[in-house]
Amino acid sequence: MEAHNVEPLITPEMKNRGTIELLYRALQQGDASTVAKLVASDVEWWFHGPHNCQHMMRLLTGEPPSQVSFRFEPSSVQVVVPGHGCVIAEGWEGSHVYWVHVWKLKDGVVTELREYFNTWITVTDYSRGAIGWDMGRCTVWESVPRDLARGSLPSLLLAI
Question: Is the dihedral of CA 31, 35, 36, 41 positive or negative?
Answer without folding.
Answer: negative
